Amino acid sequence: MQQRHLRHVFPKASQYDPEWVRKHSMGENVLFNLESLTKSLDLKPGMRVLDLGCGKAISSIFLAKEFGVTVWAVDEAISASDNYERILEEGCEDMVIPIEADARSLPFAEEYFDAVIVVDSYTYFGTDEKYLPYIARFIKPDGHIAIVDVCFTKEIESLDEVPKFLRRDYKNYWYFIHSIAWWRKLWEKTGLVQIEAAEELSEAGVVREHYIKDFENDKKPDAFAKALKHDDQQFISFFKLIGRRTRKTAYLQSYKSTSKK
Q1: Which of 14, 27, 153, 241 is the most buried (most CB within 10 A)?
Q2: What three-state secondary structure class fits 208?
Q3: pLDDT by residue (tens digit) across 21-52?
Q4: Mind giving me the DSSP string for 61-111?
Q5: Under a CB-based contact definition with an 8 Å cutoff, are residues 8 and 39 in contact?
Q6: Region 146-172: what's the mean pLDDT?
Q7: Contacts of 93 (CB under 8 A, 6+ apart)
Q8: How far is CA 108 from the centre of its chain?
Q9: What is the DSSP letter of 249?
């Protein structure tokens, strides 16, 4: 894929060293997906942003550099110390705070963030009906929760509906992937957010093509790249879901059996 085309589609993300991005992305190019998502957000300097499931924190660095927001880079699987080293290298230590924490046990005050952003991670912890009520407590009224992730263009209701090219790996890697309509319903029925966007990324084709090419010569097998390569019907895609926080109080706000009063 020509760099000129990538610069046109992702002008911000294309400024970053592709080898650095590839090394620190835990899957597809995290900055491409993030830039696509931020096109639908009005991020302003000084805002407090939670980058949840931030991986190696390059998404947090991008948000700080490109939008001037203060970012809490939270991930359970990646060391906060390792992320801090990357943050220091990029000169963002005054704007990005690394934290090692479980997405279901966050150490923040209620209504603390202007936005919660989740790039390529929400499907790992946010598919149950209790999670939005939990995470919504940390978002200011009229603040946003915005996610970008992989999706199916049609919901799979039973194993009989799994496309042939996915059958071998479906029970291992794909059983928690859903359609955009499924996600919209999951959020909408809570009344905790007003949906502002629930749609396939307009750049999904570019993201798909780049991911396949990126892993073609990789010695390690990648189930996701393999599936994309054999997906002739483009059944797999990428979507963004953005909700504006309402003033409704969530009934189920915690995963703990008891909570502090």
Answers
A1: 241
A2: helix
A3: 989 987 778 999 999 999 999 999 999 999 99
A4: HHHHHHH--EEEEEESSS-HHHHHHHHHHTT-TTTEEEEE--TTS----TT
A5: no
A6: 97
A7: 84, 87
A8: 20
A9: P
Strands (E), the chain: 48-52, 70-75, 96-100, 113-119, 139-152, 193-200, 236-245
User: Is residue 173 within 8 Å of 224, Cβ to Cβ?
Assistant: yes
Q: Which residues have CB under 8 Å from 76's CB, separation 6+? A: 100, 101, 102, 103
Question: How deeply is 55 buried, as exposed, middle or buried, from its count of CB atoms within 10 A (0-12, 13-18, 19+)?
Answer: buried
Q: What gap in Å lies between CA 219 and CA 210, rounded to an integer?
A: 17
Query: Could you report the per-residue pLDDT of 207-225, keeping only the tens digit for each?
Result: 998 888 877 766 677 888 8
Mean pLDDT for all residues in the chain? 93
CATH code 3.40.50.150 for 3-149+176-204+238-245: yes
The model's pLDDT over 100-131, given as tens digits with 9 standing for 90+, comes to 999 999 999 999 999 999 999 999 999 999 99
**pLDDT for 241 beyond 80:** yes
Dist. CA 188–CA 195, nearest whole Å: 7
- Give the pair of three-digit tokens for residue 125: 């912890």
